[in-house]
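Box 4.2: Ligand-aware structure prediction
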Amino acid sequence: AIIGRPNVGKSTLLNALVGKERAIVSPVAGTTRDAVDESITRGGKRYTFVDTAGIRRKGKTHLIAENLSVVMARKNIRLADVVVVLLDATEGVVGLDANIAGYAHQEGRAVVVAVNKWDTAENLGRRAFEQRVRQELKFVDYAPVVFLSAKNSSGLNRLLASIDESYAAASFRVPTGELNRFAQTLKLEPERRIRYITQAGVRPPTFVLFTDRKEKLHFSTERFLINRLREKFGFRGAPIIIKTKWGK
Ligand SMILES: Nc1nc2c(ncn2[C@@H]2O[C@H](COP(=O)(O)OP(=O)(O)OP(=O)(O)O)[C@@H](O)[C@H]2O)c(=O)[nH]1
Ligand SMILES: [Mg+2]
């Protein structure tokens, strides 16, 4: 699913990926109302791309916590194997982009951050822009960042490669024996031992940790563990979920 604010170029990207004018493109924000999908086969793999309505800011009323665009986007996010969070290079990274990345993270999806309209912003420099992305989109620090121009169909191979990579990472399973040998080398908190760890699921990669203390893992300990798992096993593009259990 391609998600993002209105007018960042989601429909243009869908059309570029499928090689035809499937979705309506216009400079008016809010053009796409209903999700449009189209499939292609490439390198023996089938991809179904979903172009979604732009996510708008919450309305002024506080009674309705989420507007319809958010509800619809969340649904498309949940149904997707990989979420492409599309940014507009000409506008930089804004608060709403961070919210949108947050939805993808909360739903446990594999994520790729794609910076569109790079044809008009190349002078900004990739490294500097990626730094902005890292600063503003903290939730998805695991996501690869790619630069593209949907209008010129450039950067699409790199995007597809990142989509593949993130999906593979989200689907990766660490064998239990290897995982436990690795876990025994970690020092979590003083006087807290990992008795046993197992990967209970994929998409998203979910680990269940049995420890000897009847207490939730401290947030920083969880971060530490996630970082070590990433260092050792990759999982680029995928969130990692840790569940803690105790007892024998
Ligand atoms: N320069 C440049 N303009 C682009 C690019 N991609 C899209 N645009 C322009 O951005 C405007 C919005 O494009 P759309 O594809 O309709 O954007 P959208 O995200 O689908 O918008 P909504 O459906 O309203 O949410 C159009 O005028 C496009 O021509 C790009 O890579 N470079
Ligand atoms: Mg659109």
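In the box above, the bound molecule is magnesium ion. The chain has a mean pLDDT of 92.
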